[in-house]
């Protein structure tokens, strides 16, 4: 079968292999030999040749992976540039600590390296890097960033094996970023060899759909991966157990029922905080939360439960102005500064800890996060995850600076601490390089 294509105003018969840019076989088949497909490919399984449609179908997943890789690389470049630009104007704005960390003496060169990698990734997402100098510089830069990220991942696994940290999801997010970088480096090499983008033959509508879906996947699943990779890691083993304990263990509030009973989420958090206190990982407990219109106080309810579990009442401090996570971190920071304390542990559910760390860094609170053990899966856990995605971007992009000191209105419900409280939240330093890498998952 031959397809007819109009070429230069005349009807010219072209083989399908030429239309699909697949080189046709030049050698004639021997008499009686099995015929290859019109695409010039080799016979398929059991000696059967593949049709053009089968070859296109087989290549579809690879093409989609290449387009997703391009979008993920552009998103990573944007994330790096946003962090670097934010750090110029706002202290501790950046969130690069989630996947890469440089020792203090390499901080400035490291930022220059990240900026160069972002520029190459962003530029190569739109057009091939044809000049040799740009191609070589991009390959070297991406290789160095991938090497540093691999070092961070190695540090994470070293601390994991050494028992300095523990994780129920032992996957380093640094490794995932390395995969994205290496896939983009390969794509850059292929496109330079071809002299064009790999998706140049796609229609504009198909390109818009593919990249739109890819961006939506990155936008949604990147925080979910961080919730698992970062939130599932327990850093409490870096204190206590022969090492100096943290000055305090901060337990973040959640819903309290009308009869004073703690919700399952809040009870799990308090129990885990008490367990850490009994293991000697902190010198006291700090209960942080809000107060309801009927006078019910989350911190006081949490204290009563902790006392019932055997914690001395004098070893528990209350923060009853912790109406949301951001304000709680500032309140705890001020409380610690008044007492000359420097280190703390933050206890909450795994999906909440990433937001706590972002708020803590911007408030100047030095803390290590600890995921609480759940007695069972929460019924509303899928909803909490969806809400945390929105809250993550809200905190990352919109929350910085000292919160305005305000009195809590009597008629307002308490704000959410990611455990099912009564109202939704409104929009609105480590001693060594190896220890610094422990915050990178």
Task: Provide an overview of this structure.
The relative contact order is 0.10. The N terminus and C terminus are likely disordered. This protein has two domains: 170 residues, no CATH class; 203 residues, Rossmann fold, CATH 3.40.50. Helices cover 49% and strands 8% of the residues. The protein has a five-stranded parallel β-sheet with strand order 7-6-5-8-9, sandwiched between helices. A two-stranded antiparallel ribbon has the order 1-2. A two-stranded antiparallel sheet has the order 3-4. It has 441 residues and is α/β, with parallel strands linked by helices. The protein starts with a strand and ends with a helix.
Q: Could you outline the blueprint of secondary structure elements for this entry?
A:
Elements: E1 3-7, E2 10-14, H1 16-19, H2 52-89, H3 107-124, H4 132-161, E3 166-167, H5 173-194, H6 204-229, E4 233-234, E5 248-252, H7 264-278, E6 285-288, H8 298-308, E7 316-319, H9 325-339, E8 344-348, H10 350-363, E9 367-371, H11 381-398, H12 433-437
Parallel strand pairs: 5-6, 5-8, 6-7, 8-9
Antiparallel strand pairs: 1-2, 3-4
Helix pairs in contact: 2-3, 2-5, 2-6, 3-4, 4-5, 6-10, 9-10, 10-11
Q: Total helix count?
A: 12
Spatial order of the strands forming the largest sheet: 7-6-5-8-9
Shape category: elongated
The whole-angstrom Rg is 28 Å
Largest sheet features: 5 strands, parallel
Q: How many strands?
A: 9
Overall mean pLDDT: 83
CATH superfamily of the largest domain, by name, is HUPs
What is the percent of helical residues? 40-55%
CATH architectural group of the largest domain: 3-Layer(aba) Sandwich
Overall structural class, as computed from helix and strand content, comes to: alpha/beta
Q: In sequence order, what are the helices and strands, one letter per element? A: EEHHHHEHHEEHEHEHEHEHH
| CATH class term of the largest domain | Alpha Beta
Low-confidence parts lasting 5 or more residues at pLDDT below 50? 1-47, 52-58, 407-416, 421-441
Strand content: 5-15%
CATH topology of the largest domain: Rossmann fold
Specify the oligomeric state.
single chain
């Amino acid at each position: 079968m031959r397809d007819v294509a109009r070429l230069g105003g005349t009807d010219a018969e072209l083989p399908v292999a030429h239309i699909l840019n697949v080189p046709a076989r030049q050698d004639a088949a021997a008499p009686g030999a099995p015929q290859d497909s019109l695409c010039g490919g080799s016979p398929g399984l059991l000696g059967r040749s593949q049709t053009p449609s089968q070859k296109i179908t087989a290549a579809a997943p690879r093409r989609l992976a290449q387009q997703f890789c391009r979008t993920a690389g552009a998103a990573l470049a944007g994330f790096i540039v946003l962090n670097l630009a934010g750090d110029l104007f706002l202290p501790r704005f950046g969130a690069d600590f989630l996947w890469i960390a440089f020792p203090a003496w390499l901080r400035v060169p490291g930022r220059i390296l990240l900026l160069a990698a972002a520029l190459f990734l962003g530029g190569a997402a739109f057009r091939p890097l044809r000049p040799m100098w740009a191609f070589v510089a991009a390959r070297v830069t991406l290789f160095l960033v991938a090497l540093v990220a691999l070092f961070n991942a190695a540090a994470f696994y070293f601390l994991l094996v050494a028992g300095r940290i523990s994780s129920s999801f032992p996957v380093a997010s640094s490794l995932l970023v390395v995969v994205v970088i290496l896939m983009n480096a390969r794509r850059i090499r292929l496109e330079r060899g071809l002299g064009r983008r790999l998706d140049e033959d796609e229609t504009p509508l198909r390109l818009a759909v593919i990249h739109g879906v890819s961006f939506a996947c990155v936008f949604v699943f990147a925080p979910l991966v961080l919730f698992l990779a970062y939130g599932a890691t327990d850093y409490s083993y870096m204190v206590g157990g022969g090492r100096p304990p943290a000055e305090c263990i901060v337990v973040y509030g959640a819903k309290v029922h009308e009869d004073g009973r703690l919700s399952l989420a809040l009870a799990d958090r308090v129990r885990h905080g008490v367990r850490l206190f009994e293991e000697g990982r902190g010198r006291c407990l700090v209960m942080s939360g809000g107060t309801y219109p009927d006078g019910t106080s989350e911190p006081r309810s949490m204290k009563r439960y902790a006392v019932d579990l055997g914690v001395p009442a004098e070893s528990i401090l209350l923060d009853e102005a912790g109406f949301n996570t951001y304000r709680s971190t500032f309140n705890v920071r001020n409380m610690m500064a008044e007492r000359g304390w420097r280190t703390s542990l933050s206890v909450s559910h795994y999906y909440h800890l990433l937001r706590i760390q972002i708020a803590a860094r911007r408030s100047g609170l030095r803390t290590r996060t600890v995921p609480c053990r759940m007695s069972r899966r929460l019924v509303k856990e899928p909803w909490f995850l969806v809400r945390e995605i929105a809250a993550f971007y809200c905190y990352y992009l919109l929350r910085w600076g000292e919160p305005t000191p305000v009195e809590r209105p009597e008629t307002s419900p308490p704000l959410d601490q990611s455990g099912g409280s009564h109202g939704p939240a409104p929009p609105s330093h480590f001693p060594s390089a190896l220890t610094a890498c422990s915050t990178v998952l």
